[in-house]
Design goal:
This protein is of the alpha/beta class. The protein has a single domain, classed as NAD(P)-binding Rossmann-like Domain (Rossmann fold, 3-Layer(aba) Sandwich), CATH 3.40.50. It has seven helices and seven strands. A seven-stranded parallel sheet has the order 3-2-1-4-5-6-7, sandwiched between helices. The chain binds NADP nicotinamide-adenine-dinucleotide phosphate (NAP). NADP nicotinamide-adenine-dinucleotide phosphate binds next to helix 1 and helix 5.
Length: 241
């Protein structure tokens, strides 16, 4: 019996940490993102170029990915909606309509559509869904109104899917602060754009950020042990606490 992981953004950051541990555990991993990481190579890793924010072509592109998977009735399939963007960090009036749309598409509308296609396509397989959300879903950060709203939407979506599909295990993760390009992007903002920038610079200086491989392993273990209720939000501890 082969186990399969389908992940958005498995090429770098938290997604790479996740992909690495699933590969170590013997999964075949299908990752899609806007770019291919040519240095991340493994016999059981297949990378595709898909832009999740391109909603008009998302169905066709995702079904193309699914169609390459060799189906077998006994397979267990996990979907991880991990790809995400902070979008423009600023007070709402300073953010363009185009950027708002892109952040919503990448972080919320895309994952909703991908999940719908996943549930349809793999209707007879045992399924798990992991959504990578953020603590910003439940706490306001000045400059993150759009980002936080997309993650709050993802939280509610996770709960709703768990409710509608009790046979599917759904896990919603707040990964803590993790040492990725996204954190680097946060640290590059001005205090006008993001009032807490000094705090995030300090996290890096004090080395309190989580490592992508540590976070990936924790998420894998949580999902594998199954000791959560479907739709539950689980916060991964980082070293700020
Ligand atoms: N790092 C943190 O501290 C932190 C904290 C809380 C939550 N999160 C969440 O964790 C997830 C991963 O973040 P990260 O920190 O690993 O960020 P990252 O290093 O910036 O990686 C983002 C990932 O998403 C992919 N991606 C972005 N836009 C995409 C699009 N339009 N279509 C397809 N793929 C796209 C990227 O690949 P390409 O660039 O090749 O497309 C990349 O693999 C995100 O959902 C983020 O909101 C992160």
């Amino acid at each position: 019996m082969s186990k399969i992981l389908i992940i958005s953004g498995g090429n770098k950051g938290i997604g790479k940490g996740l992909t690495t541990i699933y590969l170590e555990k013997g999964y075949i991993v299908y990752s899609f993102s806007r770019s291919i990481n040519s240095e991340f190579v493994h016999d059981n890793l297949v990378q595709f170029k898909v832009d999740v924010s391109n909603i008009d072509e998302l169905e066709v592109n995702i079904l193309d990915v699914f169609s390459t998977i060799d189906l077998n009735q006994n397979e267990e399939i996990t979907l991880i909606n991990n790809a995400g963007t902070l979008g423009c960090v600023n007070q709402l009036t300073q953010i363009s309509v185009e950027d708002i749309q892109n952040t919503l598409n990448t972080n919320l509308l895309g994952p909703i559509i991908i999940t719908k296609l996943f549930l349809n396509y793999f209707n007879s397989q045992k399924k798990k869904i992991i959504n990578v959300s953020s603590g910003a879903a439940s706490k306001e950060f000045y400059g993150w109104s759009v980002y936080g709203t997309t993650k709050a939407g993802l939280d509610f979506f996770s709960k709703s899917i768990a409710f509608e599909y009790p046979e599917v295990k759904v896990l919603n993760i707040y990964p803590g602060v993790v040492d990725t390009d996204m954190q680097q992007e946060i640290r590059s903002k001005s205090t006008l754009e993001f009032k807490l920038v000094d705090q995030f610079i300090d996290y890096k200086k004090k080395n309190v950020l989580n490592d992508i491989y540590v976070v990936g392993k924790k998420i894998f273990e949580l999902s594998d042990e199954g000791a959560f209720y479907s739709g539950e939000i689980i916060r991964i501890k980082d070293n700020r606490e």
